[in-house]
Design goal:
With about 250 residues, the chain is an alpha/beta fold. The chain has two domains: about 10-90 and about 165-180 and about 195-250, 3-Layer(aba) Sandwich (Rossmann fold); about 100-165, no CATH class. Helices cover about 35% and strands about 25% of the residues. The protein contains nine helices and ten strands. The protein has helices spanning about 50-60, 80-85, 105-115, 120-130, 150-160, 180-195, 205-210, 230-235, 235-245, and strands at about 10-20, 25-35, 40-45, 65-70, 75, 90, 165-170, 195-200, 215-220, 220-225. Strands 6-7-8-3-9-10 form a six-stranded mixed beta sheet, sandwiched between helices. A hairpin with a 2-residue loop joins strand 1 (about 10-20) and strand 2. The radius of gyration is 18 Å and the shape is globular. The N and C termini lie close together (about 10 Å). The mean pLDDT is about 90. Bound molecules: adenosine-5'-triphosphate. The site of adenosine-5'-triphosphate has 11 residues, from strand 2 and helix 1. Adenosine-5'-triphosphate binds next to strand 2 and helix 1.
Length: about 250
């Protein structure tokens, strides 16, 4: 399942000295990370480590106190989320942020409209994405009636509608059954095969260690390690801070 990173691809995303506090809480302290184009990268760490805050910095949902973020070599630190999305950064949320009073198709249409203002064209694109993800039979359903796995997939469809080249997935498989997890793995691998770079937050270690080529570990707002899954699983600092007796399988 795991493939090597092609280091000749270069960085798609570079974080330098990214720092964010909430009052007295140092959520991120001087984080430096380079994400290789085309890679699947896992972002792990205990609760409160700063993972979601890092996603908020990259997608622009919150401003940084200090630091620099470059996407395709372009400084994006001060851009609004909408503009980052237009450049190719997509994301999903830990708790799917979808509109329950709108159909599945209309939820994806919202994402597509970020790419093109033309309703007809956007609707066609939204339908193509639903088809590609095997969700077309649910186009007229309402998300509130769907199981969590479909809601998670719908969030991915919506993010895909704006044609991201970097996709941030926040807890892609938490709460899914083993069968649904396998389907999500297939989907993530399909997105990766299309050339989309993936940065994934996940607490389910078996999954993240198996699917990622590279793992970044945060703890108390600091990057305590980054390496291949095999090396991270052996790293004493990571074991002490997070992995402990978690079940691992690389
Ligand atoms: P989890 O695995 O539980 O989702 P996390 O690694 O994503 O955790 P963050 O949600 O980024 O961690 O939180 C990092 C720290 O920043 C925590 O102490 C959290 O309480 C704090 N924090 C995050 N967002 C805010 C906010 N909007 N206001 C105040 N404090 C915040």
């Amino acid at each position: 399942m795991m493939h090597d990173i092609d280091r000749n691809n270069g960085s798609i995303l570079e974080l330098k000295d990214v720092t964010k506090s909430f009052g007295g809480i140092h959520a991120l302290q001087g984080i430096n990370i380079n994400i290789q184009r085309g890679a699947i990268v896992g972002l792990i760490g205990p609760n409160g480590a700063g993972k979601t805050t890092l996603f908020n910095m990259i997608s622009g949902f919150l401003g940084m106190d200090r630091g620099e973020i470059r996407f395709n070599q372009k400084e994006i630190s001060r851009l609004y989320p909408y503009d980052r999305s237009k450049l190719g950064i997509g994301r999903t949320f830990q708790l799917p942020k979808i509109f329950n009073n709108m159909s599945v198709l209309d939820n994806v249409l919202i994402g597509a409209l970020q790419k093109s203002g033309d309703i007809g064209e956007s609707k066609q694109r939204a339908m193509e994405i639903l088809k590609d993800i095997n969700m077309e039979s649910l186009a007229d359903s309402f998300p509130g009636d769907l199981p969590i796995a479909s809601r998670k997939k719908l969030e991915i469809c919506r993010a895909l509608a704006s044609s991201p080249t970097l996709l941030l997935l926040d807890e892609a498989i938490s709460g899914l059954t083993p069968k649904e997890t396998l389907e999500m793995i297939d989907l993530i691998e399909k997105l990766s095969a299309k050339g989309i770079t993936l940065l994934i937050i996940e607490h389910v270690m078996k999954f993240i260690m198996n699917i990622s080529q590279w793992i970044v570990v945060l703890n108390h707002g600091q990057k305590i390690a980054e390496d291949t899954p095999e090396e991270v699983a052996r790293n004493e600092t990571v074991i002490d801070a997070y992995l402990g007796k978690r079940e691992l399988s690389c």
